[in-house]
Specification:
Layout: H1 14-21, H2 28-36, H3 41-52, H4 55-60, H5 63-66, H6 74-93, H7 106-117, E1 124-130, E2 136-144, H8 154-163, E3 168-174, H9 184-200, E4 203-210, E5 215-217
Helix pairs in contact: 2-3
Length: 224
Amino acid sequence: MTIKVCDLPLTDRPQYRLAQLGGNYLSNVELLALIIGTDQSIAIAQRLFAKFKTLNNIKTATLQELETIKGIGKFQAGKIVACLEISKRIQENHTPTRKLDAITSPDILYEQIKHKILNYYKEHFFVCSLDTRNNLISVDEISVGTLTASLVHPREAFEMAIKRHAAHIIIAHNHPSGETDPSEDDLKITKRLVDAGKVMGIEVLDHLIITKQSYLSFKEKYLI
């Protein structure tokens, strides 16, 4: 049975949580539900993520693709596209016009991408695409949740790298706990992606674990 927003306790409704806690504490599903704005918006947002997996995939979806989701008509699809397009334009307007320095050390990348990765209460996994001179092309979110080998698949990671015409990639994810020590899954995933990169011809240069205070570089720790 589909749960309606009006059936939820007041304190569990996205609008109430937004007002009380702020946007950083809302899940992607809750934020999309607020954009959709219907009584079944939570279920609709869940269907979106079941099909498209990540916000980046939803952002690149066409109106027609969004309308294939049960409960999304032309109006709701248009609102989603418009909101994500505004977000994209804001990000572009804050991108420095000067050429960014090449990524020659982990601390340079950390300073460039930490604002994208911090302030999450779940683990978010990103692929940083680099050109032949190690200039940063893009930072793409691949998955959300506690990292496991099944959640982070080489297919999704390298799909974005190929789309960005990347020569190399650096993978990165946050640890909401504030601890930088890699888990067993972190080590397994890194090895899996490094091996896949050798086959794909796209070298995985490093893996960064990022917290609000610091980071850990697998390369510097000789873990990659």
